[in-house]
Amino acid sequence: MSSTFRRLATVALLLLATPLVRALSIEEATVADLHAAYSTGRLTVREVVTAYLARIDAYDQRGPHLNSIINLNKLALAEADKLDASFRSTGKLSGPLHGIPVLVKDCIDAAGMPMTSGFQGWKNYIPPADAPLVAKLKASGAIILGKNSLSEFTFGGGDNINSVLGGYARNPYNTAYATGGSSGGTGNSIAANFAMVGIGTDTGGSVRMPAAHNALVGLRPTVGLVSRSGVTPNSGLRDTAGPMARTVTDLALTLEAIAGPDPDDFATKTPPHGIAAPSPFPSRFSASLKKDALKGARLGVLRQAFKPAVTDPRIIANFEKTIAELKAAGAEIIDTFTVPELDTLPRAPQTPARLKDDFAKWFARHPGVPYASVQAIADSKLAHPLHQARLESVAASGPFESDPDTIKGLATENAYRAAFTKAMDAQRIDALVFPVWAQLPVINGDRNTQIMTSEPNPKGGVTGLGASLTFVASTLQWPGLSVPNGYLGEGLPVGLQIVGRAWDDAKIIGYAYAYEQATHYRRPPPTVPPLGPKL
């Protein structure tokens, strides 16, 4: 982000301080708020983009130093001007996301901007074209404001962002703590009101964890609902991009913009969860936004996922309150719902052999990328030290078709789907509910707070086999969603996780909306207050 661009953004914000009477605060504004202001002529897209850029200037690398942005779109104001000119000419908004600033995780291709995947060896790499989901955002009228920091190659989870290029991001609710990964830059930037909505990716939980840690709504869609083309891989079976927003309504509108079949993505043709997409392909998610959506819903409490031995007692106590809130909103709670096989099934791995093949396909579609193989990346020694061993393991692996761990993992994932389907059918369960994370966010930059065993951590923080509760939806390749359900410890947000069956994305979005409207837990973080007058 150039100093000249920062100064221009700041100067432009000052020019907005005019005697005009305005009533909209950009902080916590929604898509509907902006569209109402655009439609009445009260605001222009340029004014809105400028206001967000000013917040980034004030808080990303200064002040609380949230460190959420790797690159900004230098054409953002010019693109805003084009939208404003189109509206003046036609009197109509250009699309469902007209003038909505979006931040995108920097493992997703956006034409004209670097795509680094957090790796310093790619800091100057410009991809050949937009990823399909980015093209859909632009076609809907959105402005790609910039690219967010992330754990290198999306190799991250509940801790801080591990990237030599980006460094770790900070939680805006308490900057001593982690954002969650690997979409942590997207999570903390949307929480801090640096843009209206964001796009992350989720393989093992990388949308849901930062959503929970940053008081956001975040969706891991059914694999195949959103194109993965133009996204760096982590596991071709589990990878998916997903929206992150401050409200369920904005998340649903964003999902409507980016969902759709992709003939170049095998998940559209042969979904890894084995269930073909409904016909017509799901495209309407805002229709599920009903305050009474939870009425009569049978929700299974999956206590097998957050046993007391590995779960912070505060998380458990808060979840008991959440169950009462779901009941009050009309849900029928099945507590405790059990999957008999779950306690004996192993965790299905994301294998090096699978990732090597996934990356080979990605490299074939990205001519000119530096270090154009996993072996070259490993040999460069430019990756974060925490990821070096994994990259070397991927480089040394053989064909995934004959890899024993990959074959065993496929069988395990099939067994998961069979076991969950059988148990949910038997008890007529509509969706599962449980926390997103078994511990509170960890302290930034200190991996010694994370004891990587199955035993509870006496200091709190991550345990390797216990803290992540996002593995369920990832293993199933089913949709999983996080919605704010409280604040614990040092003012740190936590999230309710709702997991549905394949292609039940609209259903769980409806449940999340009803819960959100009944509780309204989302509040802006204290470290990034409003700048200047309202727009």
UniProtKB/TrEMBL annotation:
| InterPro entries linked to this entry | Amidase_dom, AS_sf
The record's listing under SUPFAM superfamilies reads: Amidase signature (AS) enzymes
- The stretch of residues making up the signal peptide is 1-23
Q: Does the keyword Repressor apply?
A: no
Q: Per the record's keyword annotation, is Signal included, yes or no? A: yes
UniProt keywords (A-Z) are: Signal
Q: Where is the Amidase domain?
A: 47-508
Name-wise, this protein is Amidase
Highest classification ranks of the organism: Bacteria, Pseudomonadati, Verrucomicrobiota, Opitutia, Opitutales
